[in-house]
Amino acid sequence: MKRESFTSLKLLALFCLVGCMIITAGCVGQSAQTEDNVQTLIVAGPADFDSRVEMKMNVYDVFLGINADGKPIPGRLVSSWNESEDGLTYIFNLNKGIEFHDGTQWNASSAAWFLKWCSQGPRKSDIAFSKISNVLEVDNDTIQVTLKEPYGAFIKSLSSESTSQVIAPTSVEPAWSTDEEIVSFIGTGKFEVENYVKAQSAELVRHDPTSDGETLINRISYRVIPDSYASVSALRAGDVDIIGVADHHSTVPYEQIPQMMSDPNIIVEKQSYGRYQVVELNCYEGPLSDIRIREAINLGLDRDKMVKELLASAAEPAYSVVSPTYPWASSLAGTEYTYDPEKAKNLLDQAGWIVTGTDGIREKDGKKLTLTYIVPQGEANSDSIAVYIQSEMKKIGIEVDILVLESGAAGEERQKGNYDMYLHHSSGVPSLPEGPLTGKYHSTWGSWPASYHDAELDQLIETAIATGADEDYSAAYLYIQEKYACMPLYDIEKIAAYRNSVKGFTFPSSIYGLDLSTVSIEP
After folding, report:
1. pTM for this one?
2. Continuous segment of H or E residues that includes residue 155
């Protein structure tokens, strides 16, 4: 994981294929409130607070911690654990003296309830929690978890902010029930929710008092600004203090970075979590069910030019389904998708798609080679990237129809397989390496029915999950790479932009994490 400041970065001149209008609606008030020694940090994010894992990490702690390499470690709630040789039994030793926001104790009773709720309630579809057979209280500070069968990624799953943020037994109604939905935000984190307005805002107040002499923020005010350009405008106007941190998506347009860098009141930083922006492909039906077409579109995309001209060189191009720098993806080294438009054209010829008309679009059996490309709203940089892909594909004789949809509507089309190409992203730390394998490429575990699936890949994935061995994960990713299952674009480096009065911000270890408790605001 790398972190860079843009302070000394010399960006290349920006060439935009699509002009963008900065929308200022939704910006209200003044930031950096410090009246009466109460420091309020105003955070802008693209969507409802309850849907933002990152923001809720200021309210909740995760069952286990995680380091920068994506490895589970003891955290605030669990001091240590032991695993039996057969991989079926785990003993967790809990930290003492911790309370939930409402005074409920963190102990064996609440910890055992939490894991039972995960395995029997709303999170039971998660693979790790579905493996839980029983949870016992050994003593007041120790629990024992028994699995139905060995699952190599079980401990890793307990360090995931997206699935293992610990809620209080009183967060559900009736309290302590193991199969009910969350009705209130009650955690053990450093902030508690004081007020929440769905799709608009959330007000958080510090739960744990600061030490004597510390001048850290007392409150967090979260505001929903759906448009990424409007959030940049709000930051530059001083209406919010920080943007880009409340979402695991890239919500700061890279093309806006030069303008923000030129503003002496704004600091811009970035960090990579190994998470790639990718175009998922319909490998089940349509033209892309032919591996030759999938290979051709990957060879027909000039990724170097894309990041230089559209992303101000603020991102690294991606040539493989995941980065080969990871030990569990080392087999991908040397298999990267290089730019070779002539080979791409030859592959299309071999597949029977021939240029016959003056428009340059290939045809087969009287049908044009047209691909539908769905772009969910809210992904920064997606507009110019979509037009660029459209332009690149036309050069090799493929017509691309861009369809921009609200994220929910886009998801419905994805579930139905009503697309040829779909803008998405791979996982980052902490859900790598198992995330993409179980979420997209296993025929029954995942939620992408049109992604590449076959029995051999299922077996490779199941073996990797069972053993947790780097070489087994690497074999599965190599198989996906060789099937050209997606079109990788670039590394989604997370951008944080904030007012220079904000001090003490640091990037978390994982892409979903966020700890704003160390932040202060200078008058």
Report:
1. 0.77
2. helix 154-157
